[in-house]
Structures are given as C-alpha cells and as structure tokens.
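Field log, afternoon session.

UNIT: design team B
ACTIVITY: writing a sequence onto a fixed backbone
BACKBONE:
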C-alpha cells in the first residue's frame, strides 16, 4: 500500500481516537433516542402496522440504493467536513420538525417520513466515512482492537437509548424531545473539531459517480477471497434478517410474553454484543481472524436454531434470553473482524468506494428477506423461521470453510501486510 496518507499519524493518536469515539457515542445515543421516540409516536398516533412498516422501509432504502454512490464521495471529499455536514443536516430537519409540532396540533405524517428518510441518508454517509477513516487514525496493528472499541460504543447506544428514550418519551412533549438531535449534533460536532483526521491522497479529485462505483465493484471482485466472503455474508443477511425482525412476535406470540419482555430481548442481545466487542477491544489480535468469524457463524447458527425448538412457555422464554445473550456475544466477531480485514485490504484512497459496494450488497438482501418473513411465519409458525435461520447460518459457515480463498483469506492478508512492512523498513534503512 503506497502513498496511503499524505500526512503522518496523529502524534497523540489514542487521545485523538477517544475524542472521536466520545463524539460518536454522544451523537449516536441522542439520535437513537429520537429515532425510537418517532417510532413510538407513530405507534401511539396511528396504530397502523402499514405506517410502521413504511417507516422501517424508509430507514433501509438509502443504505441499499445509495451506498455504491456514497463511496466515491467519501473517497474524494474531506471526511471530517462530511461528518459535520451530515450531523448539521439531521439537526436542521429535527429543528423544522420540532417547530412544526409546536405550532400545529400534531406532526404532519409526510414531514415525519421526510425526517426519517433524511436521517437514513445521513447514516448511509456516516457509516462508510467512519469505517474508512479509522485506518488513517490508528496504527495498523491496533485496527482490530479499535474496531472492537467502536463496536462497544455502538452496542452501548443500543442498550442505553431504548430505556432512556422510553423514560423521556413519557415525561417530555414530542416537539421538545426531537431537539435531542440538535443537542447531539452540537456535542458531536464540538468534539469532532478537536479530532485530527489525516487527509487521504484521493481527496479533492473529481467525482465520477457511475465510473467510481464500477471501479469499487471491480476492486472487490478482483479480491476473490473477500468477494466470496461478502457474497456469503449477503446470503447470511438474507436468511438471518427475517428471524431478527420477528423477535417481538416470537416473544409476545410464541412465548406469550409482554412488551417489556420483548424489550428485554433487545437489551440482552445488545449487552452480549457489548461484551463481545469488549473482548475484541481488549485482546483483539488474532493471526487468523477467519477462525473467530467462523466461530461467530457456528454460535449464531446453533443459538438461533435452538430458539426455534424451545417450548412456548415462560421457562422456554428464559432459555431464549440466555441463547440471545450468547448470540449477541458472538455477533461482533463477524462484523467487527470482517471490517478490520476490509480496512487492511485496500488503500484509504480506494476504501470508500469498496465499502460502498460491500455495504450495499450486505444491506440489499435484508429487505428482500423481510418481504417474505411475515407471510412465511404466518404459514409455518414464527418458531420455525428461527430454525430455518439457524440452519441457514450454519450452512453459510460451512461454505466459508469449503472455499479455500475465503477460509485462508486472513492468513494470506497477514503475509501481504508483513511483506509490505518489511519492504517499507528496508526502504527506510537504505541510503
């Protein structure tokens, strides 16, 4: 990887990173509080499953459609500026929504949907930006651990935001609660101003959306091992997302549980993810990261599959809780380690374009699975959907093992990294 960055790594990179992570935590948790509150507001006012489904779809469409085209922008424009702009745009729409809700008896439904769509577009930009700047902010050997720490921040948001959001939703009028987005933007942008993000060589170059997106796809396809891993991951999302969307139904219909118990499952899964991310963040140095990824497929497959075999009783539900804690613990070993390998596979000047393609491929199969999830569950039973998801996940893991380019990908990647470092050291020592 030559000419990766046109400036040196920040001298106090660890402090720099913690400022960045703190900003992401504060802006993320306020954003999620507002997101949950909007969904609860729609549930309370409309009581319509169609409205809620449409709101969920609005949150998915930008990631699927825009991700390949976001990558070229991320590669060619100042990433710090892009992060600031996306936070400000979300805050402005939150302000408009808040003012409208203050002067009107209720929020216009169309404006709520527009706000949700804008938030989803902003998140579509923010994800590849964050993913592409981490390799420029930390030493390469720390990248896996740092991705684990970022995962911990995101998991903490998933644990804290629902409970805090529910409490605030019950005591603060919705038009004021929405202003938490403005607060999050102020805190996030304020901390980001103190963060140093090295410039990448490709910044400032002209953008050719279609050509750049095609280039990102070509770079991914040329990398056979990662291409196979991505395709298998997409199939995994196709199989897993239908079951993931049915957690409330599984809890309340099959186990005859309460809304509180449905929320408990969400918290338990996120807590498991936090614990898994913590292990990666503290000890995340593996010579072959494909092994923990395959471990993740195995654990998720077994736990989700077994969930479909449990009796529909409260005792069965308690086992369900334990299984989901284990599944949550295993989840970061898939997405966090895979992201670290992707980041090390490409130069920063190409990374945004490749990530755009990967994010799109990983995202598009989820909504496809969701289309069929409800009708299939209604016909065969929601618990059987969990069995299918578990078996499918195990098959994905087996396919990864059977394809040599996928199975040995990180071993070969580590060899390339070691060879590149050896050459760099030799060049530095040569007169």
């Amino acid at each position: 990887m030559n000419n990766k960055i046109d400036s040196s790594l920040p001298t106090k990179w660890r402090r720099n990173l913690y400022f960045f992570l703190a900003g992401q935590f504060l802006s993320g948790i306020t954003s999620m509080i507002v997101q949950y509150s909007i969904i609860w507001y729609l549930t309370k006012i409309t009581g319509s499953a169609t409205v809620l489904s449409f709101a969920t779809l609005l949150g998915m469409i930008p990631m699927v459609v825009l991700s390949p085209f976001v990558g070229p922008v991320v590669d060619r424009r100042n990433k710090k500026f892009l992060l600031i702009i996306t936070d400000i745009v979300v805050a402005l729409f939150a302000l408009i929504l808040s003012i409208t809700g203050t002067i009107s008896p209720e929020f216009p439904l169309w404006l709520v949907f527009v706000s949700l769509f804008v938030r989803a577009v902003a998140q579509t930009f923010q994800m590849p930006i964050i993913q592409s700047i981490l390799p420029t902010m930390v030493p390469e050997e720390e990248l896996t651990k740092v991705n684990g720490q970022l995962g911990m921040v995101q998991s903490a948001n998933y644990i804290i935001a629902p409970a805090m959001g529910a409490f605030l939703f019950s005591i603060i009028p919705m038009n004021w609660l929405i202003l938490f987005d403005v607060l999050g933007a102020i805190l996030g942008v304020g901390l980001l101003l103190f963060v140093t993000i090295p410039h990448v060589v490709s910044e400032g170059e002209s953008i050719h959306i279609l050509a750049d997106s095609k280039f990102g796809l070509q770079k991914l396809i040329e990398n056979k091992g990662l291409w196979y891993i991505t395709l298998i991951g997409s199939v995994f999302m196709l199989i897993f997302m239908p079951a993931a969307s049915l957690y409330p139904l599984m809890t309340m219909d099959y186990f005859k549980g309460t809304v509180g118990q449905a929320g408990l499952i969400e918290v338990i899964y996120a807590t498991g993810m936090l614990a898994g991310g913590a292990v990666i963040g503290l000890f995340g140095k593996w010579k072959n990261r494909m092994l923990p990824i395959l471990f993740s497929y195995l654990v998720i497959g077994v736990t989700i599959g077994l969930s479909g075999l449990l009796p529909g009783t409260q005792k069965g539900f308690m086992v369900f809780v334990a299984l989901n804690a284990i599944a949550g613990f295993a989840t970061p070993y898939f997405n966090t380690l895979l992201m670290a390998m992707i980041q090390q596979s490409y130069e920063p000047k190409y990374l945004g374009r490749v990530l755009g393609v990967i994010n799109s491929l990983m995202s598009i199969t989820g909504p496809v699975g969701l289309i069929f999830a409800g009708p299939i569950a209604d016909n065969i039973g929601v618990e059987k959907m969990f069995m299918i998801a578990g078996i499918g996940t195990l098959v994905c893991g087996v396919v990864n093992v059977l394809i040599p380019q996928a199975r040995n990908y990180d071993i070969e990647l580590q060899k390339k990294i070691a060879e590149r470092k050896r050459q760099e050291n030799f060049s530095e020592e040569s007169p």
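LOG NOTE: DSSP finds 17 helices and no strands in the chain.
NEXT ACTIVITY: expression trials, pending approval
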